Amino acid sequence: MKKALQEAEKAYAEGEIPVGAVIAANQQIIAKAHNQTERLQDVTAHAEILAITAASDYLGTKYLTDCTLYVTLEPCPMCAGALAWSQIGKIVFGAPDVKRGFSLIENQLLHPKTIIERGILETKSQELLKRFFREKRK
Known about the structure:
This protein has helices at about 1-15, 35-40, 45-60, 75-85, 105-110, 120-135; strands spanning about 20-25, 30-35, 65-75, 90-95, 115-120. It is α/β, with parallel strands linked by helices.
């Protein structure tokens, strides 16, 4: 999760909403990404989507059943849908997203075998997001 926070810091430094994601398999990081929606002018360039693509390329498969996603913010429904299609084995996230997170409709979005772990480094993830939006609103 600390590596995901480092990715979120990169997003912050680039003026992106500070969300970072890392995918691990067999205790090894195989993909990492951060939000790039502004840089790429692509609303789908969320950290999770970019990490899924990188992990799939690395493994040579579209299924990530033996992988864990670590992400600093609860995935949105779009990302949750992509994670369901990838059949990711586990999702670990930091800060909840009470307005746009997948938890609002969790049972309908994720693969039934996906394990969810919430609140890991939640405070640090939230602080970074709050700092970003405070500065944007000045």
